[in-house]
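TA notes, week 10

Several of you asked for a full example with nothing omitted. So below is the full record: structure tokens for the whole chain, then the designed sequence directly under it. When grading your own attempts, check the secondary structure regions first.
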């Protein structure tokens, strides 16, 4: 867990309210997608950041937080490699820039469900109307601006077949 007081105070202010609203407490390995410069690592021990900003990733790494520089639409982590995959306020631009925004959001959710063992948490008002209905049976909780999906290989129902991604050469440990 990160110990920088000012940095962690910002993270607590930002994240504790979100998690309380969802009624969730995270435990285990966490992938923080579109984490920005402030990560869930201030609240939890085993967090890996994922962001497309070199400055944000550098900021995290300087604080000892494993982080990976990549677009949020490129979640090529091994299947079930994190207990939780969390994206709090992901930007919509990566989905818009690829044309079909619904297909992009569908692929994003699909990848998050593949990577997570326990739950997928998305907090994003703009994304709520774009979430794919084929995984509504996995919804554990839903609010105006968030959704919590049950994940994991057993009991979550079939997902579209995906090829297994390559091992990571750098970034977050797998």
């Amino acid at each position: 867990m990160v110990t920088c007081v000012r940095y962690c105070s910002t993270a607590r202010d930002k994240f504790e309210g979100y998690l309380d609203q969802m009624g969730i407490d995270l435990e285990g390995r966490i992938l923080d997608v579109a984490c920005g410069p402030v990560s869930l690592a201030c609240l939890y021990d085993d967090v890996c950041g994922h962001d497309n900003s070199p400055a944000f990733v550098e900021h995290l790494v300087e604080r000892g937080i494993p982080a990976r520089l990549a677009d949020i639409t490129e979640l090529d982590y091994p299947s079930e490699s994190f207990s939780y995959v969390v994206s709090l306020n992901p930007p919509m631009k990566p989905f818009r820039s690829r044309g079909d925004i619904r297909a992009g959001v569908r692929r994003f959710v699909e990848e998050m469900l593949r990577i997570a063992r326990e739950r997928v948490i998305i907090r994003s008002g703009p994304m709520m109307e774009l979430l794919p209905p084929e995984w509504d049976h996995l919804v554990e909780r839903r609010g105006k601006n968030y959704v919590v999906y049950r994940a994991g290989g057993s009991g979550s129902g079939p997902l579209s077949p995906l090829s297994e991604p390559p091992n990571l050469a750098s970034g977050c440990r797998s």
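The two ends are 18 Å apart (CA to CA). Use that as a sanity check on your answer.
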